[in-house]
Write a structure and sequence with these properties.
alpha+beta; Aspartate Aminotransferase, domain 1; 6-stranded antiparallel beta sheet; 6 strands; about 25% strand; globular
Length: about 120
């Protein structure tokens, strides 16, 4: 499942304006203008047993998502305190929802000029 999930995540992220991918902290990470990260792909981070994305989030989104499904959504370590949301992709996700969360993550960090291009 891992390569298929990463392939999907890459497709969603790289379709957004001015997005690049490189390893950061040892994991595939997606950046706007090669500067600000907005999605990280984690496979078993520190043996947590999850295949998950860590996504930048608009204000209030982390809390709302976790409240709707705390098994699927979580506050990731390190960046959860800044409002990022963890999204498990090992639990048969609705990929259309994952794509929306990725786009929202992009909107949370991209400059207005790039967001206007969506």
């Amino acid at each position: 499942m891992t390569p298929d999930a990463l392939t999907r995540v890459r497709r969603y992220c790289l379709a957004l304006p001015e997005v690049t991918e490189r390893l950061s902290h040892g994991t595939p990470t997606f950046f706007v203008n090669d500067k600000r990260s907005f999605v990280q792909y984690w496979d078993d981070h520190h043996a947590d047993g999850r295949l998950a994305l860590w996504c930048a989030a608009l204000p209030g989104a982390q809390e709302a998502l976790i409240a709707t499904d705390p098994r699927r959504y979580f506050a990731p370590p390190y960046v959860g305190g800044r409002g990022w949301v963890g999204v498990r992709v090992d639990l048969r996700p609705a990929w259309s929802e994952v794509a929306e969360i990725i786009e929202d993550a992009y909107r949370a960090v991209a400059p207005k000029s790039l967001v206007d291009r969506l």
